[in-house]
Design a protein that fits this description.
- This protein is mainly alpha-helical and 303 residues long.
- The protein has 2 domains: 51 residues; 229 residues, Orthogonal Bundle (MetI-like fold).
- 74% of the residues lie in helices and 1% in strands.
- It is built from 13 helices and 2 strands.
- The protein has a two-stranded antiparallel ribbon.
- α12 packs antiparallel against α13.
- The longest helix is centred in the first third of the chain and has 49 residues.
- It is globular, with a radius of gyration of 26 Å.
- The N and C termini lie far apart (63 Å).
- 29% of the residues are buried.
- Its main location: membrane.
- It is found in: Cell membrane.
- This is ABC transporter permease.
Length: 303
């Protein structure tokens, strides 16, 4: 065999092996996130349900099958607190929708396309600040002699401070709206981004009023994104224990705070049961939303 042919064969073999290595690495680059999510998300969620039926010990829990944790949840004041937190989270969802979704529609319809993503970024910037700082910063604003009461008194709109703004359910709702409002703006904008701009022009040409256009055209097209944002706000309103801890009073309790209190009392099966109930609630909402709106359409262009 000639040296030249050997060299060519060697280069071909080396090139082929290098290509195989790169192809293998590219496959693992896509597999690693899936493995990570399975190991550190799906598996812990499944174990949460398993641990919720373990038997409680003095400092931990041991394998067994006991429904005592669920009994302690469903046949106590914890269930009422959970249902109450669902009600107030639903109020927060409605307020966020009323305030946030019109912003998303305005961005899509009236702001030049080159500047739309920059404006959306302004609503994401607050999340670069720690959540505990953002929530705690509301206390000087909402307290008895805070910014809101001082401003209203100076304008002559009230004669005495409003005490319902802090350490009440109202304070928790305000905290949830301020914390999660950008999510409905962002998800609503993603849904509206899939809607061609000429649809607004067609509605104007046909003489459709603002209300008719909003109900008959915009809402059906943006329904998947709206639902996804609303579910995110609702579930976080149930689970973030910081909000009732910092802004709520004695009766302001959500599922996250119930789980935190159970952990502090070393009742780990109860904490697991509460987490499992929240997870079941989330999965149920996502299933209903997918059946109604097909959530895969959030990023799909509208034909």
């Amino acid at each position: 065999m000639k040296p030249s042919s050997i060299s060519a064969a060697g280069e071909k073999t080396f090139g082929g092996s290098r290509f195989d290595v790169m192809e293998s690495l590219s496959k693992w680059a896509f597999r690693l996130p899936i493995i990570f999510m399975v190991v550190f998300f799906a598996l812990p969620m499944a174990l949460t349900v398993v641990f919720s039926v373990f038997e409680r010990t003095m400092f931990w829990m041991e394998p067994g099958f006991s429904l005592l944790a669920y009994e302690n949840f469903f046949f106590s004041a914890r269930l009422n607190n959970f249902l109450s937190s669902m009600y107030y989270s639903l109020i927060s969802v409605v307020i966020c929708f009323v305030l946030g979704f019109p912003i998303a529609v305005f961005l899509r319809k009236s702001v030049p396309q080159a500047a739309q993503h920059r404006v959306v970024l302004l609503f994401i910037l607050p999340f670069m600040v720690s959540e505990i700082i953002r929530v705690f910063a509301l206390r000087p604003v909402l307290q008895r002699n805070g910014l809101v009461n001082s401003t209203l008194e100076s304008l002559g709109l009230i004669n005495e401070p409003i005490t319902a703004l802090l350490y009440t359910h109202t304070g928790v709702i305000i905290g949830e709206v301020m914390s999660f409002l950008p999510f409905i703006v962002f998800s609503g904008f993603l849904a509206m981004e899939a809607v061609p701009k000429y649809i607004f022009e067609v509605c104007d040409d046909l003489g459709a009023g603002t209300v008719r256009r909003f109900i008959d055209v915009i809402l059906p097209l943006a329904a998947p994104g709206i639902f996804a944002g609303c579910v995110f706000i609702f579930v976080n309103g149930l689970g973030v224990a910081l909000l009732p801890n910092i802004l709520g009073g004695a009766g302001a309790v959500n599922a996250g705070l119930i789980a935190t209190q159970a952990i502090a009392a070393l009742d780990f099966p109860l904490a697991m049961a509460v987490s499992g109930i929240m997870m079941t609630t989330l999965m149920g909402l996502l299933y209903i939303g997918h059946r109604l709106f097909d959530l895969t359409k959030i990023l799909s262009p509208i034909n």
